[in-house]
Design a protein that fits this description.
Blueprint lengths: L2 E5 L6 H9 L6 E5 L4 H8 L7 E5 L4 H5 L4 E4 L15 H18 L4 E4 L4 H14 L8 E3 L2 H14 L12 E3 L6 E3 L11 H12 L1 H9 L7 H20 L5 E7 L4 H11 L3 E9 L2 E5 L7 H30 L1
Parallel strand pairs: 1-2, 1-4, 2-3, 4-5, 5-6
Antiparallel strand pairs: 7-8, 9-10, 10-11
Helix pairs in contact: 1-9, 4-5, 5-11, 6-7, 6-9
Bound molecules: nicotinamide-adenine-dinucleotide and (2S)-2-hydroxybutanedioic acid.
Length: 328
């Protein structure tokens, strides 16, 4: 029995993500939770002729949706409008994520938790702090989905250099998921030979790819379809490793560095951070290992140096949102 709960399932990401998950033979039950329209989306998807059962759960039924879930995927919350930063979403999304994490702690404390809602650099620490508060935190099982940065990296790189196949090229993206905290390691793309100017343009485009979509949608939200693709790719990797035992599955993802005790010290020494996006290999229990940082160029080291102070602030904001409220 592999129950996957999608929280925010009726939204711009939630609907196409649920559609993609309905194609998966790894999932036996898809539980769709949203404060609006979840039963409608569930009824629609339930007619698709794959094996999984689909159920819809409205506002009052979060516990039912989460109960016994193997994996919980969270695209709930508000998206950006032009002129906003991801951090501007904190005010609304922090409370939404906290309440969903409380639901996870109560109903499925051993679940994998895959966080899409922004600002990811802060929402992942919120989830971890809530789970810690309830004594059910397993750092190997909580992930910030930064796969869209990886997807954009190979796509945008292939537009500059058509010899790069976007589908089979996986670019490591370290740091976090917003602006300068997104650090694509383009120097490691096999066979790449970008000029300095191309590297600068490409890096800037990857770091601000989200803004490109927000601007084009002109007030109607942010990336949804490409995010659904990225979210399904990430969830499938986590599930394949956990459910089928498939080995060698690696994706860049934003995790609590305690997820790999062997790697923690080296990463803390290099970054001073408790959370960081880096390539992770998946196993039965989630994080099997955090891979060592790849060799990075002088240009990438400068990007990392710029990312670290911002990440520190984002992480502290998420962590203190829970720890400060516990003191009241
Ligand atoms: N990690 C990434 O790379 C990435 C990419 C794109 C978007 N995002 C983020 O994903 C989030 C969702 O984006 P979207 O475009 O789908 O937004 P959306 O507004 O279209 O959908 C969000 C859904 O969440 C639901 N929701 C709100 N509060 C809820 C709650 N308490 N419980 C359950 N559901 C709730 C809403 O009813 C809505 O259906 C945003 O925060 C956005 O910034 C992240
Ligand atoms: O840009 C956004 O706000 C959504 C998402 O984080 C993205 O990278 O597209």
């Amino acid at each position: 029995m592999v129950k996957v709960a999608v929280c925010g399932a009726a939204g711009g990401i939630g609907q196409p993500l649920s559609l993609l998950l309905k194609q998966s033979d790894l999932i036996t039950h898809l539980a769709l939770f949203d404060v609006v329209n979840a039963p409608g989306v569930a009824a629609d998807l339930s007619h698709i002729n794959t094996r999984s059962k689909v159920t819809g759960h409205g506002k009052e039924s979060m516990d039912e949706a989460l109960s016994g879930a193997h994996t919980v995927i969270i695209p709930a919350g508000v998206p950006r409008k032009p002129g906003m930063t991801r951090d501007d979403l904190f005010k609304i999304n922090a409370g939404i994520i906290r309440d969903l994490a409380e639901g996870v702690a109560k109903n499925c404390p051993g679940a994998f938790v895959l966080v899409i809602s922004n600002p990811v650099n802060s929402t992942v620490p919120i989830v971890c702090e809530v789970l810690k508060k309830h004594g059910v935190f397993n750092p190997k099982k909580v992930f910030g989905i930064s796969t869209l940065d990886v997807v954009r990296s190979s796509r945008f790189a292939s537009e500059i250099n058509p010899a790069i196949d976007p589908k089979s090229t996986r670019v490591t993206v370290i740091g976090g998921h917003s602006g300068v905290t997104i650090v694509p390691i383009l120097s490691q793309i096999p066979g790449q030979s970008f000029s300095k100017e191309q590297l600068e343009i490409l890096t800037q485009r990857i770091q601000y790819g989200g803004d490109e979509v927000v601007k084009a949608k002109d007030g109607a939200g942010s990336a949804t379809l490409s995010m659904a693709h990225a979210g399904a790719r990430f969830a499938t990797a986590v599930l394949e490793a956990a459910v089928t035992g498939k080995s060698g599955l690696v994706e860049s993802t934003y995790v609590n560095l305690a997820a790999d005790a062997d790697a923690t010290a080296a990463f803390r020494a290099r970054t001073g951070l408790d959370y960081f996006a880096q390539d992770v290999e998946f196993g039965h229990e989630g994080v099997k290992r955090i891979l060592p940082l790849p060799a990075i160029s002088v240009f990438e080291q400068a990007l990392l140096d710029e990312a670290i102070p911002e990440l520190k602030v984002n992480i502290a904001k998420g962590t203190s949102f829970i720890s400060d409220s516990a003191k009241i």
